[in-house]
C-alpha cells in the first residue's frame, strides 16, 4: 500500500473518532432541560410566548415574488463570466448575451402582465 493511502485512512478514522468524542462530550457537558413543557414550547425571535395563531396561510404572491427573484438573480451568475470573457467571445458571444437578456426581459414582461408584482 502507498503511504498516501495509509495517511488518508488514518486521517479519516481520526476524524471519525474526534467527531464521536465531541458528540458524546456534548451529551455530558451541554445544558439539560428536563421540563417537557419548556422543551416543546415555541421560541421565536427572542419571544417565548408569541401572540396569535401560527397556522395562517400565506398569499401565493410571496411565492411568486420569491421564485421571480431567484430566476432574475441567477442571471448574474451567467452574466459575470460573460463580462469577464467578453473580448474573447467576440461578436457571437455578444449576440448570445443579447438573446439571453431578451428572454429574461420577455419573462419580466410576462410576470408584469400576469400582475404577479402588484400588491392589491
TrEMBL record:
GO terms for molecular function: NADH dehydrogenase (quinone) (non-electrogenic) activity; NADH dehydrogenase (ubiquinone) activity; quinone binding. Its EC number is 7.1.1.-. GO terms for cellular component: NADH dehydrogenase complex; plasma membrane. It holds the Pfam family Oxidored_q4. Keywords: Cell membrane, Membrane, NAD, Quinone, Translocase, Transmembrane, Transmembrane helix, Transport, Ubiquinone. It comes from the Bacteria. It catalyses: a quinone + NADH + 5 H(+)(in) = a quinol + NAD(+) + 4 H(+)(out). It is found in: Cell membrane; Membrane. It is an enzyme of class 7 (translocase). It is a multi-pass membrane protein. The chain crosses the membrane at residues 6-29, 62-83, 89-112. NDH-1 shuttles electrons from NADH, via FMN and iron-sulfur (Fe-S) centers, to quinones in the respiratory chain. The immediate electron acceptor for the enzyme in this species is believed to be ubiquinone. Couples the redox reaction to proton translocation (for every two electrons transferred, four hydrogen ions are translocated across the cytoplasmic membrane), and thus conserves the redox energy in a proton gradient. NDH-1 is composed of 14 different subunits. Subunits NuoA, H, J, K, L, M, N constitute the membrane sector of the complex. Belongs to the complex I subunit 3 family. This is NADH-quinone oxidoreductase subunit A. The lineage of its organism: Bacteria, Pseudomonadati, Campylobacterota, Epsilonproteobacteria, Campylobacterales. The gene is nuoA.
Amino acid at each position: 500500500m502507498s503511504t498516501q493511502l495509509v495517511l488518508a485512512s488514518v486521517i479519516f478514522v481520526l476524524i471519525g473518532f474526534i467527531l464521536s468524542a465531541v458528540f458524546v462530550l456534548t451529551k455530558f457537558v451541554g445544558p439539560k432541560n428536563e421540563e417537557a413543557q419548556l422543551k416543546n414550547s415555541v421560541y421565536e425571535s427572542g419571544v417565548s410566548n408569541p401572540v396569535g395563531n401560527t397556522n395562517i396561510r400565506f398569499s401565493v404572491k410571496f411565492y411568486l415574488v420569491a421564485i421571480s427573484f431567484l430566476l432574475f438573480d441567477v442571471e448574474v451568475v451567467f452574466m459575470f463570466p460573460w463580462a469577464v470573457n467578453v473580448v474573447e467571445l467576440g461578436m457571437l458571444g455578444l449576440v448570445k448575451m443579447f438573446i439571453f437578456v431578451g428572454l429574461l426581459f420577455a419573462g419580466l414582461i410576462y410576470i408584469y402582465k400576469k400582475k404577479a408584482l402588484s400588491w392589491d
